[in-house]
Amino acid sequence: MFITYEAVPNEWDIFKRFGNVFEQTYTRFLDLKLKEEQAVKLEKEKQRLEKTLKDLQATQNQLIQSEKMASLGELTAGIAHEIQNPLNFVNNFSEVSKELLDEMLEELENGDMEEVKAIMDDVIQNLEKINHHGKRADGIVKGMLQHSRASGDKKEPTNINALADEYMRLAYHGLRAKDKSFNAALETNFDEKIETIHVIPQDIGRVILNLFTNAFYAVDEKKKQEGNSNFSPKVAVSTKLNKNNVEITVSDNGNGIPKKVLDKIFQPFFTTKPTGQGTGLGLSMSYDIITKGHGGELKVETEQGKGTTFTIQLPI
């Protein structure tokens, strides 16, 4: 019987195979270890990014709140002016009514009932005027509180014509309180066919206020640049009832927006105002309120040297 060495596995081959297996196992081990380290790093990076995102969201909320408070600040002077008028009426009519009642007592003692009835009619009319102006003051205060509180998602039947008229005057008087020399012609053209539409009033109020504030700023800047020229600042607002939407247009005859920045005006933090005079959040917030919050559109048309028109379209 012959035994050949070729039939017996070579010890070197076995060792070599074992080495290959060990090498593959060790390589696999290193790969797994590397992936585990990478997974740990990814988890840490994920946690870091989540924290950064939370910080950014918190900062965004703070900036949005700051912008809301800034717009409320713009309103304050206008509100003070607007609320003073109805309060003056209330005070005046109250004083006059007291004098009339004193006269009525005298006429009662004299037995002149005809004069008593006439005085009573005057007192009734005065009380109606007091009630009217009291409600006017109450409406201004409610509008201010509504503007300052955090907006929800509750839509309410809102008179868009009254809202636009109110905020136009408040924005104008707010600027006048800062600069007594400022004057502008205010033009309104409201479509009386518009009744109430369902919107979030404090949000739409913020948008309209922002557009008016920008418009007054634009015409004021142009007036300062042109000095004693014949330029007459003008800001106009109009509403229109279309088949599927209500259109609100705010226009000015300022310098217009340069074409090179026109595509950026709705971007957060972009502003054409000097440093310290604008956050760059006003138009960005306005765009989100109209498009995301109300499913509408906010458009702009401008011509350098001639003015700018912003158009809001709200679905009915």
Describe the protein's architecture and organization:
The chain contains 5 helices and 7 strands; from the N terminus they run ααβαββαββαββ. With 316 residues, the protein is of the alpha+beta class. The chain folds into 2 domains: 68-149; 157-316, Heat Shock Protein 90. The strands form 2 sheets. The chain has a 5-stranded mixed sheet, with helices on one face. Strands 1-3 form a two-stranded antiparallel ribbon. Strand 6 (297-303) and strand 7 form a beta hairpin. Helix 2 crosses helix 4 (201-226).
Give a nutshell description of this structure.
The protein is 61% helix and 14% strand. The protein is of the alpha+beta class.
Task: Supply database-style keywords.
316 residues, alpha+beta, Heat Shock Protein 90, two-stranded antiparallel sheet, disordered N terminus
